[in-house]
Amino acid sequence: MQICRTIADIRAAVAAFRAAGESVGLVTTMGALHEGHMALMAEAKGGHDRVVATIFVNPTQFGEAADLAAYPRTEAADIEMLEAAGVDAVLIPEPGEIYPEHDETIVETPRLASIGHGAVRPGHFRGVTTVVARLFNIVLPDAAYFGEKDYQQLAVIRRMTRDLHFPLAIRGVATVRAPDGLALSSRNARLAPEDRAAAPVLKRALDAGAALARPGVAVADIAAAMRDVVAAEPRARLEQLDIVDPNSFLPATGPLTHPVGVMISARFGPAADPVLLIDQMELAP
Ligand code: PAF
């Protein structure tokens, strides 16, 4: 696997793949890799001659400096996992490489970015689209792979890709879960053991919603059932629950007639230094 620290190096690696007539799949990550990322690598590998990964803890998508500082960094282990997964090249840039001096260009889907999870983390999705657009332009892949766990992120990236006419496909990959249902996330490593034991409540809430999701059932009743599940777990502090139309991301209301996106987030651990976990999925009546 080629380990590239600069844009010039990764572009040279991709140019060599292209010169050999090979297709390229891209998986962007912030490192601290786990089996969820490996599922993305495996999908990319199945679909392309070459897989390029990126590891970049993107400062612009973090609201609080403390959250950015606390984000796990496990570069040596990440490189081993990427090599074992058969990834061909990885870009691991310094922030100044992606955000050059006097940088000022942003990419934003203003409406989609300000609702749902975006309302809890103002500026987060602007940071995501800004960095993903840059990574797309750097690597110029045929397709890029993102987890369905981040349902709203996937929608935001699809919208940006379509609106800016990026010539690549966006592929969603099913969420990988621990045996107790907790969606794998790099943030899970920050949970105290008691909070790790409590965290599957998010999946239980989604399951409660899925169990009710039949044509004609009121969306408000689904939301109430999900809230009850979280309320029964004293270690979880519900942050946000949104049930939305999958295209407009406007709140779904009334009786269920078509699939809806369900996005739930909760904080665990000390109020001064909580861990925000999210889980999201589409429910079909
Ligand atoms: O999902 C992530 O890990 C990040 O938001 C992404 C897409 C790599 C952008 O920094």
TrEMBL record:
This is Pantothenate synthetase. One of its GO terms (cellular component) is cytosol. Catalyzes the condensation of pantoate with beta-alanine in an ATP-dependent reaction via a pantoyl-adenylate intermediate. The reaction proceeds by a bi uni uni bi ping pong mechanism. It catalyses: (R)-pantoate + beta-alanine + ATP = (R)-pantothenate + AMP + diphosphate + H(+). InterPro entries: Pantoate_ligase, Pantoate_ligase_C, Rossmann-like_a/b/a_fold. The active site is at residue 37.
